[in-house]
Amino acid sequence: MEIRIKKVRQFSIVMITLVYTNWCLDINKPDPIFDAFAIAGTTVKLPCSPAQQAQLKPQLILWYKEPHKTPFLSLNIDSLKNGATEELNKPRFMIDSSNTFPGDLYVFNASENDSGIYRCRLDYAKDPTIHIRHNMTVIDPPRQPILSFESQIHTAKSIFIEENGSLTMTCEASGGPSAVQVIWLKNGEVLDSVMEVDNFNVRVNTLHIGYLSRDYDGLVLECRVVMLHDIIVGRRRIQLNLYLSPLEIEVEANVTSFQANKGYNISCTVKGSYPAPNISWWTGADQVLETFYQVLDSTKLSVSTIVLYPTPYDNGKMLTCRAINPNVPVAVIEDSLKLHVTYKPITILTLGQSFDISNIKEGDDIFLDCFVRANPPFHRLQWSLNGSTLNHSVQHGVIMSNQSLVLRNLTKLYTGSYVCSALNNEGEGVSNEFEIRVQYIPLCSVTNTVTVTVAGGDLVNLTCTAEAFPDQLSFNWSLSPLGQDSRSGRTSIPGATVVVDGRTSILTYRPIDVLSDYGIVFCLASNKMGNMKRPCAFNVTKEGIPNSPSGCLLLNPANKILKVICSDKNLPPNTTFYLELYEIETMKLIYNKTNTVPHFIVPGITPETKVSAGMLD
């Protein structure tokens, strides 16, 4: 047992280790003797105050160590009361005179040489003398125990082990008497008392715990070295700290629906992990890198927070919070939240797969597809060309079906930039601009015949401009002279020079002869799509010659009859009028006639025939 005492004169508080067997004094039996066991190096107290004589005060107390007959310490109570100095102390020995019942012997820093029988003699004034004998055995203890873990000496006060794992730890003590035991305790209860002793008097107790549940976390194990009568002569304590896998995880958000590109605080709480887990966030297979992490170690609680800016492409994805304790890598837990992201429509405009954007020609049929991604679904889809809204019109070849735009029998009017747009409750989404260039044969930029009056012998410059795509053009100039029968066709223009600049061609020549150099000059432009169906026409007249009729109309009411009616306003009287009629496809002269009035009736012309008329006065 361990006993603590207060100050004993000049000595500080000391630790007393002493074990008695049968400590019960019977004054009716002579020379009682008590076995006492003490540990070397400690302070020993040998009592000398029988309870049966507590009401009596001895006059003289003497201490002997047998077989010596002379006391080595004495205490005269009467002299002590009168302030006399008694022989109370010797090196490492002292009689306690401070208690109500003085006489106890203290042995400081006891050693094996102090072992033996000690006798206390109490002399009373009237009562018989009492002798109390102590057979004190001072034992040299074994060395302090050594702990080993995984074949390595472990000196720290704690150890870290994976949860659900196992523990094997040895405690060994060497030296001391043969009765020494090495035992393991948990919460003061014996856990393992089986030990082995080798030839070198080393005692080893191997503790094995096959399954370390979470309940073992923080548990203090004690290896204790004890001797006879449970004297503790050495101990080592070690605390078990478990690497704990996370138990619970929860993702929390304040909303159930998210707007695209708006920030939202979302938290993930992980419970039960030690040390704090690694927490990561994922949207689908993509990791979210910017997070805020807070650890509350006292409760094994970890909180990770992100500010999420969801994109339209996150809609329907799982936002996942994943926790893993790096020391328990097999224990991974996660919680997920399905993202419902609302956003305005995302629209993409493309040409139908079967069409070649570089080879769209006049007369072709094509279609455009508008791919729309929207949440909530769109409720309006609109098409525009060059900024102007297109309307569904089968008559004009504009057909809108679901999310497609069909364009039939294309003309150059369909050339331009197309856009589709979709509208939902989040707003309007406008697609990319898609450019369509319709290839067509050249068209003269001027629809009417241009009259040019030239003084005799002057140069004339005729400018011919064509609209076309592609605009890599070639030009051909010809003249239908006044003095030549139109049925003989057109002629080249002698001495003429031609300059071509892109879509424009300029002809320069000097008309001299009225009959051969004046008349209708034609400019025919061509590209890879073909020739102009109606060439540009210039009526080159000599100054002083009447102007051409104006306000001409071509009428084809029925019965294969074409009427050509012009105005003779501002023309002199007695004017003769000439009519030439050409087929546009071949520019072949199919009719010519003269008349005194600008009115002609041409038979045999059907409504399907495409013609070009020229009239001179």
Description:
With 617 residues, the chain is an all-beta fold. The protein has six domains: 2-139, Sandwich (Immunoglobulin-like), CATH 2.60.40.10; 146-243, Immunoglobulin-like (Sandwich); 248-339, Immunoglobulin-like (Sandwich), CATH 2.60.40; 343-436, Immunoglobulin-like, CATH 2.60.40.10; 439-545, Sandwich (Immunoglobulin-like); 548-617, Immunoglobulins (Immunoglobulin-like). Helix content is 1%, strand content 51%. The protein contains two helices and 55 strands. Strands 3-4-12-11-6-7 form a six-stranded mixed β-sheet. It has a five-stranded antiparallel β-sheet with strand order 14-13-16-20-19, with no helix packed on it. Strands 15-22-21-17-18 form a five-stranded mixed β-sheet, with no helix packed on it. A hairpin with a 2-residue loop joins strand 8 and strand 9 (93-95). The radius of gyration is 62 Å and the shape is rod-shaped. The model is unreliable at 1-27 (pLDDT under 50).
